[in-house]
Amino acid sequence: MDLDISDKSLPVFAALDSKVRVEIIQLLSKQKMNVSEIAQAIGLSSPITIMHLNKLRDANLIRTEKQGNQRISSLQVDKINITFPKQLYIPYENWQVELPIGQFTDFDVQPSCGLAGQTGFIGKVDNPSYFMDPERSEAGMLWFAKGFVEYKVPNYLASDQQLEMIELSAELSSEFPFSNNNWPSDISVSLDGHNIGVWTSPGDFSDVRGRYTPKWVYNDMNQYGMLKSFRISKHGSFIDGQYAAETQIADIDTTKASWTLRFEVKDSAKNVGGCTIFGNKFGNHDQGIKGTFYFSDTTLG
């Protein structure tokens, strides 16, 4: 489950703000249980236990089902990721770009792979040839088991400006046929061949539906990813603020009209678990691949 600091996440925070409900989660992490079994284990009456279960269910932390006269509860989430708002205090000007995820310029992917838009799949699933479908620009989700996709990032830097830092962000997850919440994958990110870092995605998530994922997407398909931040600065490259690679901003050729951004799952990776990229109107973050480019004016020095 992917959360941020907003009103939408309050039901989950409220559900977890209880020693009793945390104890129930611990019990359900071991096995499914009915109301009587849970009530006996936590030492509360069945009506009070049901109240706590309803709170956890409404927060999408557990699921309940009827089996005869019994109400069976099971854990629905095995991981919660919380994204805090960030503010970079940088005294630089910047320009921003947002690339639709279907606007890739090169690829070499292997099944399972595919593209999806607002109304259905784009072309045939598990056929890399359809990654060249003219409608790929409408994709809000793409996935592949191994290989790469590349995007051209425009360079708007003027001759009297100096590039100081690059920040990129994308919503990513692993790729497993349909989904697998525990399916690690090493996703490499590079710019113009310069390594930014490798992020190990923990899984391909379908424990809850993505906030923006269209209704036509099956419940057991990829639902959302994790929003990852990639930064290139004069100190090196960072993923979510953690040092990830030696590439520095000085390594980027600022005389070029564009740079090549690559997302890749390599044959040599320890965890070859695929890659899913979520874009606008899919997943938990209504965005494509965002870039912010910070620069200074050399004429002011």
From TrEMBL:
<dbReference type="InterPro" id="IPR036388">
    <property type="entry name" value="WH-like_DNA-bd_sf"/>
</dbReference>
<dbReference type="InterPro" id="IPR011991">
    <property type="entry name" value="ArsR-like_HTH"/>
</dbReference>
<dbReference type="InterPro" id="IPR001845">
    <property type="entry name" value="HTH_ArsR_DNA-bd_dom"/>
</dbReference>
<dbReference type="GO" id="GO:0003700">
    <property type="term" value="F:DNA-binding transcription factor activity"/>
</dbReference>
<keyword id="KW-0804">Transcription</keyword>
<dbReference type="Pfam" id="PF01022">
    <property type="entry name" value="HTH_5"/>
</dbReference>
<feature type="domain" description="HTH arsR-type">
    <location>
        <begin position="1"/>
        <end position="95"/>
    </location>
</feature>
<keyword id="KW-0805">Transcription regulation</keyword>
<keyword id="KW-0238">DNA-binding</keyword>
<dbReference type="InterPro" id="IPR051081">
    <property type="entry name" value="HTH_MetalResp_TranReg"/>
</dbReference>
<protein>
    <submittedName>
        <fullName>ArsR family transcriptional regulator</fullName>
    </submittedName>
</protein>
<dbReference type="GO" id="GO:0003677">
    <property type="term" value="F:DNA binding"/>
</dbReference>
<dbReference type="InterPro" id="IPR036390">
    <property type="entry name" value="WH_DNA-bd_sf"/>
</dbReference>
